[in-house]
Amino acid sequence: MVSTWLKAAVTAVSTGVAFAACSGDLRGSAHAIEVAAAAAPAVASPSAAALPDFSSLVEQYGPAVVNVTIVGKRRQVADIPGFAPGDPFGEFFRRFGQPIPRGQIPPPRGEGSGFIVSEDGYILTNAHVVAEAEEVTVKTTDRREYSAKIIGLDENTDVAVLKIDAKNLPTVKIGDPSKLKPGEWVIAIGSPFGFENSVTAGIVSATARAMPVGPDYRPQFIQTDVAVNPGNSGGPLF
Question: Global pTM?
Answer without folding.
Answer: 0.69
